Amino acid sequence: MAESESGRVTSGTRVGTVMDSLRERIASRSLMPGARVPSIRAMTDTLGVSKSTVVEAYDRLVAEGVIVARRGSGFFVSGHAPPLALADIGPRLDREVDPLWLTRQSLEAGAKVLKPGCGWVPSAWLPEDGVRRALRAVARDPQSLLTDYASPAGLPALRQQLAWRLAQHGVEAPPEQILLTDGGTHALDLVCRFLLEPGDTVLIDDPCYFNFQALLRAHRVHIVSVPYTPSGPDLTAFERALSEHRPRLYVTNSAIHNPTGATLAPAVAHRLLKLAGEHDLLIVEDDIFADLESEPAPRLAAFDGLARVVSIGSFSKTLSAAVRCGYIAARAEWIEPLIDLKLATSFGSGQLAASVVHRMLVDGTYRRHLESMRAKLADAMGETVRRLGNAGLAIWTRPRAGIFVWARLPGSLDAADIARHALADNVVFAPGNVFSASQSAAGFLRFNVSQCNRPKVYETLQRAMEACAAVDAKERARA
Question: Cβ contacts of residue 444 below 8 Å, gap of 6+?
Fold first, then answer.
């Protein structure tokens, strides 16, 4: 029987599967301290294992102190709820390809490590000189608040600018319906705090941006994923999920979808909103890559008029990850309670960051930067798609803009194995199942075209593919 160094049974056995199932329920708070554990018969039926397997698993969990046995009553969760550990919630992944660990590797990597799997452009592609000029200008402006808290909704001048920019995408949101935040993740966190209760069901795309999953698990909600197509979510599966699970919320990117690079089709958007109305579904539309588009794609928030869609975004991917500035655009009556939540959890947002962003928007720096950046990305997209095709990968859909390409490996190669091999060569890839709640994307990798301009990326990919193919061949020969 397989055991870890700590003596805990691993999920490589039937007993370990039962134990992991209960540990995950306890870690995710679906079973709280003192709660009765499913009976031996119920667990046998649920997991399709023998009664003796469940008995042994429960005995081992009792020995570990995870559950307690009460004569004549059954088994119960013991002690207090453990500290929330996101790695213990959801699918069990090897640490090397766990989504949060992938982010750590990308953020902590030195200059020698290549990061074609990360989610941001190289620093050299961002307007560092423009940020410095804006900082100096803000510091010299006697009207700038450099030492005080920002107004609760955020810098009025920037909210006015954002209202104008949103209108370019068809989203009508006056400044009074816009709330500034410390980035896109802060925006999504506030919306989740406002709209969700623990135990609610939330729909996500499969695949989707992996931090959607991590943040939603932190809010202790039930996640249901719907397959994503090159034109948007699979509407048949979407409608079925609405009927079966009655979700409260759907979280998505409609323009420049992460990780696939796909764009929502107008017909799919209209049908999706009709289904949302029929099932009282709310939608969060993360529009963080909006400024990378050369031609605006359809927006759910534009078709819906912010009735049941909340639009969020930030400047982290296009201007500076260090200047934390994002926003929420929502229906008018939601702004005041969202401001209350913002004050309760962070007491405001960065006035200095907002002033810098506003300065760069109005002096033309940001516009000129975007023109240059879009041209670079278009060139990088073409080159990356070409080289991946030469390496034998199939492009899932050719993105119209943005930084991501979603590509399928040849044959039965597993992207997690490719990623492990590449790590040893100081290259960080992003395997597909990092983005898939259903773990159905084992054959895919997400590539960031802005980080794929070094020959070593493709050389490492080729070596990893050859090594994994050789291992697969040996295993087939043994079989």
Answer: 207, 396, 406, 407, 408, 409, 415, 431, 432
